[in-house]
Amino acid sequence: MITIYGIKNCDTMQKALKWLTANNLTFTFHDYKVSGIDKSTIAEWLKHFPADKVINTKGTTYKGLSDTEKADVTNKSKAINLMIKNTSLIKRPVWDLGNGSFFLGWDEKELSSILLSANG
């Protein structure tokens, strides 16, 4: 089962959700703006991706951080706390593909290769 994490009103998320539906893939959507995000989930992501990739460093939320907070991105536990406090910092979408597999961001070609070939 796929779990996709993001924010409902994000354009990239809307593309991803439409793509999942159009390809008849079963998924759960976790809107962390509505439901929040917990430390253990983010810690799991950080086993697969560096914190500076999970944090959207191009977004306005990141740009609004203090220099100290920006430096905290390189410290795993401080980065987790930043993402819990400011969920808009998290790159979208984060894909939990099941079986310990994860994907970060939106790349239709790559996701098609991973998900559609796997589901034949």
Describe the structure.
- With 120 residues, the protein is of the alpha+beta class.
- The chain has one domain (2-10, 27-106): Glutaredoxin (3-Layer(aba) Sandwich), CATH 3.40.30.10.
- The chain is 50% helix and 16% strand.
- The chain is built from eight helices and four strands, in the order E-H-E-H-H-H-H-H-H-E-E-H.
- It has helices at residues 11-22, 32-35, 39-48, 51-54, 60-63, 67-71, 76-85, 108-118; strands at 2-6, 27-31, 94-98, 101-104.
- The two termini are 15 Å apart.
- The model has no long low-confidence stretch (mean pLDDT 93).
Query: What topology, given as strand order, has the largest sheet?
Result: 2-1-3-4
Tally of domains: 1
Low-confidence stretches: none
Helix/strand/pairing category: alpha+beta
For the biggest sheet, the summary is: 4 strands, mixed
Task: Give a summary of the structure in a few sentences.
This protein has 120 residues and is α+β, with helices and mostly antiparallel strands. It has helices at residues 11-22, 32-35, 39-48, 51-54, 60-63, 67-71, 76-85, 108-118; strands spanning 2-6, 27-31, 94-98, 101-104.
Tags for this entry?
alpha+beta; Glutaredoxin; four-stranded mixed β-sheet; 120 residues; single chain
Q: Any chance you could write out the topology, listing elements then pairs?
A:
Blueprint: E1 2-6, H1 11-22, E2 27-31, H2 32-35, H3 39-48, H4 51-54, H5 60-63, H6 67-71, H7 76-85, E3 94-98, E4 101-104, H8 108-118
Parallel strand pairs: 1-2
Antiparallel strand pairs: 1-3, 3-4
